[in-house]
Amino acid sequence: MPPTAAPVPFQGLAAGCAALFGGADQLDRVTREMCDEFEVESAFLVSSGKAALAVVLQALHQLTGRRKVVIPAYTCYSVPSAVVKAGLEVVPCDVEPKTLDFNFDQLGQVVDGNTLCVLATHLFGAPADVDRIRSICRNRDTVLVEDAAQAMGGVTNGRALGTIGDVGFFSLGRGKNLSAGGGGIIVTRSREIGVAIKEEWDRLGQESFGGAVKNLAEMAATSVLINPGLYWLPAGLPFLGLGETRFYRDFPILKMGEARAATLKNWKGRLTSANAVRGEQARAYLEELRAYSPHVAAVSSPGAVYLRLPILVRDRAMKREILQRATALGLGMSQAYPGTIRQVPELEGALPPGDAPGSREVVDRLLTLPTHRFVTSAHRRAVCRLLEDVAVGGSATPVQQAVDRTVSSGRRAVSNPKCW
Length: 420
Ligand SMILES: *Cc1c(COP(=O)(O)O)cnc(C)c1O
What we know:
Elements: H1 10-19, H2 26-38, E1 42-46, H3 49-64, E2 68-72, H4 78-85, E3 89-93, H5 104-110, E4 115-121, H6 130-139, E5 143-147, E6 155-156, E7 159-160, E8 167-171, E9 184-188, H7 191-203, H8 209-225, H9 232-235, H10 258-262, H11 267-292, E10 297-298, E11 308-312, H12 316-329, H13 357-365, E12 366-370, H14 377-392, H15 398-408
Parallel strand pairs: 2-3, 2-4, 4-5, 5-8
Antiparallel strand pairs: 1-9, 6-7, 8-9, 10-11, 11-12
């Protein structure tokens, strides 16, 4: 089972192929659709989420001249990659394990008059407290950037994630809410920031014909191999680096190609239905975890689109054992990021002093459960059983086996799950 899945449908691939041979208005069309859907002043389509972030940072730096970019100490390594690529300084701020949002005491200390922006991050699709982050930014004239790479289509208090801050971005990478095999989208309601980004964007080159062909071929292969019956194949090829977390010393920053934009045909319908499925899976997990796996805590919040469902287990040893067994069973559970931003070797010596105990705890205890459309109730049950099995130590006890039988026969299992 893959940890995430957002296959590109056949019609999207066909439209992409057709666009290789003319039809050069796809980029404009999708850009307009993004503006309409997200009710923003301007949108910009680029080659990846990290490219989107790098462009935003370069534009903001042009506006204010400031250099410090505050990011969560627990996030995707692509984020500091983009900060470094933009020639700016990474300032990690610790996160709270219970929310995966900033530690607000520390945030208040690290944001100062030299802070270009703070990155509010909706990790795994769970909304960050953007209003609270804004209240800290406002005093220091700091820009609020929303990293909605994992939260496209999410809504909190009636506001679309990615559009609450001064400027936001989405990722169209393979494992994201909506995929174009790769890609990034910048959205902003601010005219001033929009103009500055447009200046940067106009200067970018565009994806080559060869690159577009390769991308379409990869998308086609991914759409087939992402199926649970076949995923063992790419998962067993280490050179593909699936699920790997990397720090990119360099990466291309290009306008999105016409062919890639063309694959986003009916993107709104695809995004809405994929997120609806993820929401249903997550709700089912939350109920099942409460009933059958009382030793693990899900990090849940209202409005989350749950690209994956994050859970916290007891400690590092438990996490390791679960991952080992989950991998052997092919359950699609993932360790998420292997370390904190302070532990990224490429950033050694480049960060201001500080500590991130909350982020270290997250690295030790966090696992994610797959929520995509290939997940079945039998699969969720196997996940819950594994979690509980490891939590209570070792192989199933007779009581548990009885419960398992009850669960698998579909009856309401236990009135007091803590008993086992
Ligand atoms: C994936 C991701 C990015 C970068 O997006 P790419 O399209 O992979 O470059 C940035 N931030 C977060 C939180 C992400 O998950």
